[in-house]
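Re: the 113-residue chain
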Amino acid sequence: VKAGQPLTVEADVKNTSSIAGDEVAELYLEYGQKPGAPIRALKGFKRFHLAPGQTRRVSFTLDPRELSVVTEKGERMVLPGNYTVFVGGSQPTKGAPGVGARFQISGQQKLPQ
């Protein structure tokens, strides 16, 4: 992803039970070792109903502001480097159900505060 461009994340969510129910898909962004950045941040969620055995594709779009951090100088920046996105029913901890993918941002961009 080039700094300043949005990123679209899609994942399939399946109800593996025999009972209909609601699910909340959560999208987390992990910043890697960026100075001043949190380890991870919740960037979106969607609640929806699934019938037994039903699969639904969820889609999130992260704009440049959602991909940015506030630096130690107080500037909002999209920084180059490696990042990870995770979509699941909770935070991405060891063994948490969900899917993750790594991506890289090239270049950097200063954003308005």
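Residues 88 and 98 are 4 Å apart (CA to CA).
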